[in-house]
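In this notation, each integer encodes one residue's backbone shape. One such record reads:

___
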Amino acid sequence: MTDYKEQSKETNWDDGHRLWPLPNMPWTMKQTWNDLLFAHFPVNFNVLRKLVPNIFPLDTYDGVCWVGVVPFHMTDIRLRGLPPIPGTDKFPELNVRTYVTIDGKPGVYFFSLDATNLLAIKVARTFYHLPYVRANMKVEKQGDMIEYESVRKSEDARFVADYRPVSEKYFAEKGSFEEWLVERYCLYTLNPKGVPLRCDILHHPWELQLAEANIKENTMLSSRGIVVENDSVVLHYSKQIEVRMWPLVKAF
């Protein structure tokens, strides 16, 4: 039998930093994520509990839940065994997410994923049961400054910001708040029958930088009924990371 865990290391990748083994099956998709901003907002547990399916246990840090708005742009998108398909191999994406854990496996739960590519949206909604929506998006880079704009087509959900890194690169310390926020190696979703599913991912540990951002417009949270505790926002930046995704499996 082929050991697909070994195949995950075909480019000297190491999955030793993950808390649980990868599924014994081949990865299905490869992506590179670029110029990410992690903008995290504190949210009361009771507020968030009403918005996330009860089957997903919410994570808290010091008793507080956090919701992230994460703009970035993807490149080098391809399915395993296939070359990149022109027109679908790169596009911007904007995620609104929070954090849950099932069976000791900390992961991400998405409220929404905005993107420009209609085919990619249909594929992700069909095969990964993710709440992708289409938006008009623009990403420009001026030196180390990222100018980002996303305006959803179907509703008043928009994010307009300029952001950039303001520190040297570093890795989150073990047990730190930053590690709790970003070092998560799966996503959770529900299929149409309400069955909780997990998608495992693999990438190197995040190289973070502190960030500053001028957030000019942000209705990404209010459009989903998310009320933040206060106006404080925790900002991090990451330049680039290569990611591999596995097929969905049952979360329990």
Summary: The two ends are 25 Å apart (CA to CA).
